[in-house]
């Protein structure tokens, strides 16, 4: 019984800490299919934060804008793009979800948001098969 209650407490704490997209200080998650749909409908600002060589190799997901996360002004550029689009939630995608999670945290810390992480990424991860395996459309990037 004690183990069951302890497990319920852990689950309850996890649920309480689960992120939502109700404020700039929080984040949430989307799969690539929903991110693509919302980007095309204008409900989110989808940003591909990978490197130019990665964009060239695979293309950029349709509806996404490429902004290299290594830019020294990355946070300012994302914030400006969000402002230009009326404060839409920002969704970040990278190759496998590692960099998007890190940059989600950085943007939240900079009070940019709401932020949405796409943990499957373009190439897939433990979260799922990813943009390319799901056969979502891409746009060629030529620099």
Automatic annotation (TrEMBL):
Alphabetical list of InterPro entries matching this protein: Rhodanese-like_dom (IPR001763), Rhodanese-like_dom_sf (IPR036873)
Could you tell me what this protein is called? Answer: Rhodanese domain-containing protein
Q: Which organism is it from?
A: Planktotalea frisia
Q: Give the classification, highest ranks.
A: Bacteria, Pseudomonadati, Pseudomonadota, Alphaproteobacteria, Rhodobacterales
Question: Looking at the Swiss-Prot or TrEMBL record, what is one Pfam family this protein matches?
Answer: Rhodanese
Q: Where is the Rhodanese domain?
A: 40-134
Q: Which PROSITE patterns match?
A: RHODANESE_3
What the entry lists under SUPFAM superfamilies is as follows: Rhodanese/Cell cycle control phosphatase
Span-the-membrane segments of this chain are: none
